[in-house]
Protein: TetR family transcriptional regulator
Organism: Streptomyces cacaoi
Amino acid sequence: MSGSGQGTGQAARPKRADARRNEKALLDAAAAVFVTSGVEAPIREIAAEAGVGTATIYRHFPTRADLIVAVYRHQVEALAEAGPALLVTEAGPHAALARWIALFVDFVTTKQGLARVLQSDEPCFDPLHAYFLEQLVPVCTRLLDAAAEAGEIRTDTGAHELMLAVGGLCAVAGKQPRYDAHRLAGILVDGLRAGATA
């Protein structure tokens, strides 16, 4: 699974629209399998989920580490893109913030299985946490600022501390019966209304 020369050449050329769609389908399939079977799931299971052969997986992602990094980045990017879209489609900035935090909870709870892998000696995993912060803190800041400017929430809460708080609420998810991280994160976001200026 080295994929040396051919993979480098492919990476240097812009991908066609159909190639990007195919890669997105693979990443979505891998993400779904990682949630149900863990990141060590057989490649054939991911291929079956995506409806392709295993050779197609290896052509796009020569190693499992390549696939894990791509899935992580793909889902961070989707979460980053959701923030501005929610400001347009939701009833107001607080509703957009609440919906985005719900998506953030989904992301965090389904990524808990990656913790052991991300702490391994693979150097390709090292930049992922920084990438997570670079992509998502500005989005959360924009949502908080919009809600604060509308007078819907208090103004003294930062994006990083809110994301840390929600991450802490998610840490127990799946380990305790009747523990609902979504419900608790919703209570936290509703609590931001206390002290609002409107």
Q: What stands out?
A: Residues 1-12 have pLDDT under 50 and may be disordered.
